[in-house]
Amino acid sequence: YISPDFMKELTRDPDRLSLGGEIRDLTVMFTDIRNFTTISESMTPEELINTMNDFLTPMSDVVMETRGTIDKYMGDAVMAFWNAPLDDENHARHACQAALTMQSVLDPINAALKAKAEKENRPYYELQAGIGINSGPCSVGNMGSKQRFAYSALGDAVNLASRLEGQTKSYGLKLLVGEETVKHIEDFAVIEVDRIQVKGKSEPVSIFTLLGGPDLAETEDFQILRERHMAMLNAYRKGAFQTALKELESARAADVHGTLADLYMVFELRIKTYIETPPPGDWDGVYVATSK
Question: pLDDT tens digits, residue range 103-117?
Answer without folding.
Answer: 998 888 889 888 988
